[in-house]
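Fold this sequence, please.
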Amino acid sequence: MASSRRLRALITNDDGIDSPGLWALAAGARDAGFDVVVAAPHVDASGVGASVQSVREGSRTRLHARELSALPGVPAYAVEGHPAFIVHAAGRGWLEPVPDVVLSGINLGANLGHSVLHSGTVGAALAASLHGWRGLAVSLDTPLQPPERPHWQTALAVLPDVLDVLLASADGTVLSLNVPDRPTAEVGELREARLATFGAVQVRVDLRSGDDGEALHSRVAELSTPPEPGTDQALLAAGHPTLTRLQSVSELSGALDEAAPARRAG
């Protein structure tokens, strides 16, 4: 990308403006030479996917300027909206100049397999591609009960090489990076990975009845079956940071062609 100006990076997440992972990613982008602006949900918005929902008062969505002590001089905003809403707002008139890249994370917990569909972290990166921007989702493989001190620095150690890959890719490229929650010295080489069938965790939903009526009760559990070799889940479990290129929404032709034999038989 030939330009005399610094590239601008919008840093967002789905864990919310007060997440140390967000601050770490913003610091990593700043140290990599980006002109950084931080805008993240005002509260946790995990699991919202690419939702563009916001808390609206008529046509208004409130945002709140923040001073992040870890990032002096970096403009930061808490937005009463989901991550993808923040990205779309940046491309629809809010931010000037618009971002060149969207970096989303660092998420507490890996985003693996086809269940990335549900991730607000990944949803923000995919939303970036709709504007022709490059997007990167960064996730740290912490357990369901996160540790007191996640290894943010391990993710930041991998970040420069991944940013080189991202910037060398075509406009609209979306990458998902998952990093083991281990000390940097205990992490293997970066590996490209295909998506697992689902992911590392699964939600079980049960219908229960009580005095106040019926309700759906959800619980999350880690999968006990061994991961399929070569997938993001398997490589991450083996200690490798994994990188997967994701494709946003697109169309497939031939729907009527494939249905034609059945239609003729009917």
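The longest helix spans residues 152-168. The chain has a mean pLDDT of 91.
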